[in-house]
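Re: the request from the purification team.
They wanted to know what the chain is likely to look like in 3D before they choose a buffer screen. I agreed to run a prediction and write the result into the notebook, where they can find it.
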Amino acid sequence: MQHIKTLGELKASNYEALPVKTEIRKNLRKLLSEGKNVFEGIYGYDETVLPELQQAILAQHNIIFLGLRGQAKTKMARLLVQLLDEYIPAIKDTPLNEHPFSPISSGAREMIREMGDETPIEWIHREDRYVEKLATPDVSVADLIGDMDPIKAANMGLSYSDERVIHYGLVPRANRSIFVINELPDLQARIQVALFNILEEGDLQIRGYKMRWPLDVLLVFTANPEDYTNRGSIITPLKDRIESQILTHYPADLDIAMDITRSQVKLDAEQTENIDIPDLLAELVERVVMTARESEYVDEKSGISARMSIAALEYLYAAIERRGLSTQNASSRGRLTDVFKIVPAMTGKMELLYEGESMGPINLARMLIFEAIKEQFLSLFPSPEELARMEDERDVYDVFKLWFSDGNQVSLNLNASDEEYEKELNKVPGLRKMAEKEAQEDAEIPFLMELLLFGMSFFEIIELAQESTSFTAYDPLSGALNDI
């Protein structure tokens, strides 16, 4: 590349020109045969989406990713750049990335006629061969395809019939590249029609100019399901011309969901060094998001983006950091009660049905958090209801019932230091011992002690009252009996 600067030198190098889809196919075959991970940073799609995407590439198809928000559609499209050759040659100073062996515009052909083997060559990096456009209602045919430029015609003294007065749109400028349109249904129907010939015939048509340019483009589209919005839809003839439609989905596994969130969350060095969030607390954040996706109060056609998990975890770190600074603790540990502070990171990311709107986004977010806590409790500890029905099974919660029934209580101050907070939890006899049985590491023990208190409140063994800055666990019947 450093030595080849002219068309003659390129010919002498025996360079092989490949169409962009063939080029991507060739590089994918090489990576797959070497057992390399082609799409680094994509989680949960190993058995579903990625095999389909690889097959579409091997088939040299144009592609549409169809799925709800936050399902890595755009990220996968951008990762396709890795499958391009690092550099390709093009005729220098031409806007269409034209291959020196097969120029398509009159300007490039005329340059080669005049200069022959001395025609200058430039090398284009793979990052410059990716073009992305967000579809919006104001996008025009001129933006995507091109149009006549009267100012250029006047400045160059050319008639409007001359091809050189054309201003090329984004698609022709993406020749020999990957062109991505995000949110395809937002394009007006008449604009979608302009893409027909590019998809079916692989050529370009601009107004009344007599030309058939064989564009070399891999077209990739992303869209939400058509029944999600009223903004528009993909017209049937266009969908028919997109050879491969790949459906994306949310992660079904908690571990995969946590991997996605951890890979995307943005934290400062002070947060990662000074804040300890147990895995169980990070898991609880994912459970909250999964609970929201399944909620009857949330519009399932809209979906809950992975951005909610990411924003919630970042907000959780910030809440713990703030508490550590206000209590002068250089290091802070995440607590179960901290999860209630992620509500502001949730409310703007849920599209609610009528019942959810009636409840209000803040109340719904808190309800979802409580549901997720209950689900996590039952995944780790026995259900008090089931133990009560099993005559041969000892009720492990009896010791806690007895302690609270004597009028004892636990008050968890949300702004207390880690030491004060844990000291309050240790007041309940046997609570730490039961938590230790399920803990994978010492940092999880206080979290599990909190989880036990919340779990007992769900099954009305104790009452858990919340105030602005505290949770208080007590037995309401003990107070009533004392009054008598």
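For the purification team: Residues 392-483 form one domain.
Please add any questions underneath this entry.
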